[in-house]
Amino acid sequence: MSEVGRPAPLRVLVVDDEQPARDEIAYLLEHDDRVGSVVVASSAAEALRVLQEDEVDAVFSDIRMPGLSGLELAQVLHRFRQPPRVVFVTAHEEHAVDAFDYLLKPIRDTRLSEAVRRVVDAGAPASAAPEETIPVELGGVTRFVRLSEVRYVEAQGDYTRLHTPTGSPLIRVPLTTLEQEWADAGFVRIHRSHLIALAHVSEVRTDGGRVTVVVDGEELAVSRRHTRELRDLLVRRSRPGQGGRS
Hints:
246 residues; five-stranded parallel beta sheet; 27% helix; elongated
């Protein structure tokens, strides 16, 4: 690492057969402080030639390309002993859920910055910090609920209700605050009133365009605006471990 507690700058490979798109994403990445170097390739085959000489931390790749597609390139990269993080860049929204990670064209600075953050976080060492606990006031007694006990959270005015196997205590913290603070712990917003723990989703149901999830036996509605994000996150969590380099 370049500084204590700070990860080394990322090495990134951009793959796109269209030069304007390739140049744009390379330009944006070069102006991100977390990125140290950017190399480009005009095809998947050229990308593999580059990777014979250089190792990278992440590959930002178009999906639809002549010859080897971005999806096929990712399959090859996943066989590497230390595979780079793959971020698909696509103008076709129907590919988004199938991608391990993705950006939709045209690229927006905020979305690209978030993708870089996920790459950095994926390479960060696991923390040995103790599990977070939430203080809950019950009849003058403070009880501490472990974050891993929380199955889902429900907004109730200025309060939120924590649903756990042993009870449903109220805390005076807005749902939006918990959404931000617990994102890294696997919690995701599915509705303006609900935040769920992905690890405890047992079913996703679709009926006439209406999507619901089952969490700890409770069926909860997923709003339209959160449906794609939820499916994408569940797909990522369900992917098998990566193999060794051949």
